[in-house]
Amino acid sequence: MPSRTLPNYMTKEIATKNTSKACWVTIGSKVYDVTEFLDAHPGGGELILEYGGKDVGDIMQDVISHDHSESAYEILDENLIGFVATDPVLKTAIQSDRPQNILPLPPNEAGAEELKANSAAEHVPTHKAVESTGMRSAQDLYRETNAQEDFRKHKFLDLEKPLLMQVWNGNFSKDFYLDQVHRPRQYKGGESAPLFGNFLEPLSKTAWWVIPLVWWPQVAYLSWIVYLAMPSGFQFAAYWLTGLFLWTLVEYGLHRGLFHVDKYLPDNRVGITAHFLLHGIHHYLPMDRYRLVMPPTLFVVLATPFYKLAHTVFYWDWYVATAVFCGGIFGYTLYDCTHYFLHHKKLPGYYRQLRSYHIAHHWNDYENGFGVTSRFWDRVFGTELVMPKPVKVS
Predict the structure, then answer these.
(1) Which are the contacts of 282, defined by CB distance < 8 A and separation ≥ 6?
(2) Contacts of 374 (CB under 8 A, 6+ apart)
(3) How many CB atoms lie within 10 A of CB 337?
(4) Residue 228 pLDDT > 90, yes or no?
């Protein structure tokens, strides 16, 4: 899903999207682009095209035709592109003293209450916000934040000004900081809010493709040297894959034990600022596409102790230790790229489920769900995130 505020569409425009090149459907106020799903639909794309440009809420719950499973609604949620205001919603907004609470959809809490009072809430996403994050669904992550209104209400950070010195000079208590930093904001459709506000600003931003560009040639070079020195290709592969597997544990450990060390965070500006730079800014602005992967300069600092650790554990052979280290570094690059794709790309099958899992870590439960490339270690250590069930609009 693109990193932007989801638009509201006119019913006339939606009605024209009924071809194999552009097929949209609606359920109540939600608009879905199912074009890419036409070929994968078990009943064939022709069945979807029959309902192209129309509301499919009733047919999806028709047990005679075919009662769709929760996974079908999850697929729809992945393809949500916007909203359409039904006649009852439009009538309520026209009569309202504060129509901005209702439109554009989805409504805020005040607007949702007004829709319910006027019996116009059917098919409108009006479920309550999660207390710890202020989010009602994954779609809220894409709603652009009004910087002035947000600062006036919460007295935390002004998104229009450099963030770092605001955190440093804010004199925030730990409890207030943690409460606010885990309430996601969206800056100008996913652009990067200013962090330093000076010549250091570019160093805080990294495009996802920089990661493989910088690290894969080095991993390939060292791996080749090690491969040539190993007695067999099987032995090389075994140690290299061991490093790849160990990375998944490191990934989990870093995310849970360092990035989310919230309870043990020192209640002072040094600890709070360090937390913000390491991971807090990502939860504060989760859709910032240039602060989703780790800048190479920072990763060098973090990778150095792991290099030494690998050569301490596998002390008997430099080549063995380096093979393990190379596998681990490759695992890191897959993690960083996966992290970016989970936030900003439409993905197939397994990765679509993984995307929902990770996005729920941001909007629903940041105290669980620390695995990014898999849920394996979450299951082992009892921190698997319980996924909220997709809402079947009736």
Answers:
(1) 288, 291, 292
(2) 248, 354
(3) 18
(4) yes
Per-position DSSP letters for 120-187, written without gaps between them: --TTS--PPPPTTT--SSGGGGGSPP-HHHHHHHH-S--TTS-HHHHHHHS---HHHHHHHHTS----
What per-residue string of b and e applies to 242-252 under the rule 16 or more CB within 10 Å gives b? Answer: bbbebbbebbb
Q: What per-residue confidence (pLDDT) applies to 65?
A: 60
Per-residue pLDDT reduced to its tens digit, 15-66: 999 998 999 999 888 888 888 888 877 778 888 898 899 988 888 877 666 6
- Residue 325 identity: F
Report the C-alpha dihedral over residues 280, 285, 291, 297, rounded to 10 degrees.
-20
Say whether the peptide bond before residue 106 is cis (omega within 30 degrees of 0). yes
**Average pLDDT value over all residues in the chain:** 87
Whole-structure pTM value = 0.73
User: Which residues touch 37 (CB under 8 Å, ≥6 apart)?
Assistant: 48, 75, 79
Paired tokens of 276: 């913000």
Q: Which residues are within 8 A (CB) of 94 and not within 5 positions of it... i.e. 6 or more apart?
A: none
